[in-house]
Amino acid sequence: MAVQPIRLFGDPVLRTPAEPVTDFDKELRVLVKDLFDTMLDAPGVGLAAPQIGVSLRVFTYYVDGELGHLVNPDLDLSSEEQEGPEGCLSLPGLQFDTKRARRVVAKGFNMHGEPVVLEGSDLLARCIQHETDHLDGILFIDRLDREQRKQALRMIREAEWSGEPAPQVRFSPHDTFGKAI
């Protein structure tokens, strides 16, 4: 099991758009396994590579008993919206109702470079959008209205984990996947 530390709010890697995956090699497969192990250990329903300090466009999910991953996702969102509770492993203890598209079609690749189309609604759609946001340097609190965001930032300042120093990270997508050094 290769559980990695989860980066917390304030770590710059969480606000940096991730690089597309270009090499579908053994290192990518190790990254996907690390993401699965870390997500399931947390436990969470999704985890994006930047959350473990890796600036690559990869995420894993575990929704309704379905375990999967997506590399280099491109989303097509429905116009119909849903509002529901959302949290984040990088913002422990925070949960706010967040607006998202109700359905999503995500195109990308699996860890072997084979094309994948992932269709989801409700919780799976929320998860896919949330994790793809991570790959774009966006956190779910960025999608809250002004009052909710102010409340979230206040809660973050008061959280016991707030202000924890971030481990140093290598941002190159090609060196040890940005693990702490």
From TrEMBL:
Task: Give the taxonomic lineage as stored in the record.
Answer: Bacteria, Bacillati, Actinomycetota, Actinomycetes, Kitasatosporales
Record-listed E.C. numbers: 3.5.1.88
* InterPro entries xrefs: Peptide_deformylase (IPR023635), Peptide_deformylase_sf (IPR036821)
Is this entry keyworded Hydrolase? yes
Q: Which reaction does it catalyse?
A: N-terminal N-formyl-L-methionyl-[peptide] + H2O = N-terminal L-methionyl-[peptide] + formate
Residue numbers annotated as active site: 131
* Top EC class for this record: hydrolase
**What is the scientific name of the source organism?**
Carbonactinospora thermoautotrophica
Please list the cofactors this protein needs: Fe(2+)
Q: Which keywords fit this entry according to its UniProt record? A: Hydrolase, Iron, Metal-binding, Protein biosynthesis
Output the superkingdom of the source species.
Bacteria
Q: Which Pfam families match?
A: Pep_deformylase
NCBIfam families xrefs: pept_deformyl, PRK00150.1-3
Q: Which GO terms describe its biological process?
A: translation
- Output the Gene Ontology terms for molecular function: metal ion binding; peptide deformylase activity
Role this protein plays: Removes the formyl group from the N-terminal Met of newly synthesized proteins. Requires at least a dipeptide for an efficient rate of reaction. N-terminal L-methionine is a prerequisite for activity but the enzyme has broad specificity at other positions.
Q: What is this protein called?
A: Peptide deformylase
Q: What family does the entry list?
A: Belongs to the polypeptide deformylase family.
How is the cofactor bound, as the UniProt entry phrases it?
A: Binds 1 Fe(2+) ion.
Q: Where does Fe cation bind?
A: 88, 130, 134
What are the coiled-coil residue ranges? none
Q: What CDD domains does the entry give?
A: Pep_deformylase (cd00487)
